[in-house]
Amino acid sequence: MKARAIYILVLLVFNLILLSTSASKMYYYSIPHHHEALAPEIILKAGINGTVYIISTDETWVEVNITGSLTETYYEYVLNITNLSSNTNYQIKLENASITGISRLTNFTVYFHDGTTLKQIEIFNGDVTQSSGLWYSVATSATIYLSIAIGVNAPGSSTVDLRLYIVQSGTTSPEIIQTVRINVN
Question: pTM of the full predicted structure?
Fold first, then answer.
């Protein structure tokens, strides 16, 4: 219990430092394993595309800002998802939670990839054509990437909230349910 309290305190201090150093481009966030509070096994890290804010102290959301244009843009490395465990494989998938400004999205397609690509979410011409993805494996000590293809038909803003489910391979109960908010400007 004492180790958990120290871990939470360290996360809180780290997040406060991130908030006070907004000039930094690197944000780091750890998701603790619910059964072992001593060491996180899956981490989310900003990719090289878009602006990613991973600063929640309650460990329930990630926010991404990307720019949409009239011509389709592909952001290949929006979010890095890394399994730090050397002996536990995980499965992840995304599910649509809510959308605002959907009518301006001519294409909004979210993928996981690491050599193999798997579509998770698709919005085409303002309609949701795929609202959830299949499970994608994150092997021990591996990193996979979240990518987004985006196109819009008008200026404005749209927000897509997704649920990221993380389960240990061979189980069905989510260990973590994370909100990923994607703002398209």
Answer: 0.72
- Beta-carbon contacts of 104 under 8 Å, excluding residues fewer than 6 positions away, are 68, 126, 152, 153, 154, 156, 158
Quote the CA–CA distance of 93 and 6 in Å, as a whole number. 31
**Cβ–Cβ contacts within 10 Å for residue 95, how many?**
14
Q: Residue 41 — very low, low, confident or very high, per pLDDT cuts 50/70/90? A: low
Do residues 107 and 150 lie in contact, with contact meaning Cβ atoms separated by under 8 Å? yes
How does residue 48 score in pLDDT terms, banded at 50, 70 and 90?
low
Q: Which CATH number fits domain 2-184: 2.60.40.10, 3.20.20.300, 3.40.50.720, 3.50.30.80?
A: 2.60.40.10
Q: Helix, strand, or coil here: 3?
A: helix
List pLDDT tens digits, range 81-130. Answer: 888 888 889 999 999 999 999 999 999 999 999 988 999 999 999 999 99
Q: Can you say whether residue 125 is alpha, beta or left, with left for phi > 0 and alpha for psi between -120 and 50 degrees?
A: left
Radius of gyration of the chain (CA): 17
